[in-house]
Amino acid sequence: MKLAESTVVEDAEVLDPTTGKPYKTVKWPATKEANTVPLLKELPDNTLKNFQFWMYDPISGQAVVVCDDAEYRFMDTRDLMCFGENDINLLAKSQIQSDPEYEVCAKSWTGAVAQIMNLKLWSGQRSRVVIQLFGPYVGRNIPILPELRRKQKEQARKQKRKEQ
Question: Residue 97 is inside which H or E element, if any?
Answer without folding.
Answer: none
